[in-house]
Amino acid sequence: MSKLEKKSVIGISALLVHAANIDETYSNNEKKLVKDFIKSYLKDEDENEILKEAEKIEKNSNQLLNYTNIIKQNSIEIKKDIVEHLWKIIISDKMVDQYESNLMRRICGLIYFPDKESGEIKLKLLNNK
To answer: Rounded to 5 degrees, what are φ and ψ at 112?
Structure first.
């Protein structure tokens, strides 16, 4: 997996927090999934600090584009990994509502990630539950 710089990881983590918050339930399990994402890119950093920063950014910004522009510039592998983390968070409560599905479609469109591949990732994760 290629690297993301700290600033990018914070921004993408804010997007993950946004995905977690969209159903208005931000569970400890979802927080853990965001921290797993952070740890997968920034092994030597304090994931709790980065999560706090990401939560602050998410609270103060309704601009989905801020986060997706960071992702758009990365490789397809990184995009795929981020889409997978987003789906893990969304399906962690065993439910996907229309707002969550809509969010994923919008994000995939904004980062130029194929909808079909996003759907395959979602199915793979649902089948592994």
So the answer is: 60, 45
DSSP string, 19-61: HHHTTT---HHHHHHHHHHHHHH-TTS-HHHHHHHHHHHHHH-
pLDDT digits (tens, 9 = 90+) for 45-62: 999 999 999 999 998 877
pLDDT of the residue at 112? 95
Other Cβ atoms closer than 10 A to 92:
17
Amino acid sitting at position 36: D
CATH architecture of 6-128: Orthogonal Bundle (1.10)
Spatial separation of the C-alpha atoms in residues 88 and 66, rounded to whole Å: 22
- pTM of the full predicted structure? 0.92
For 69, the token pair is 């522009």
CA 86/CA 74 separation, integer angstroms: 16
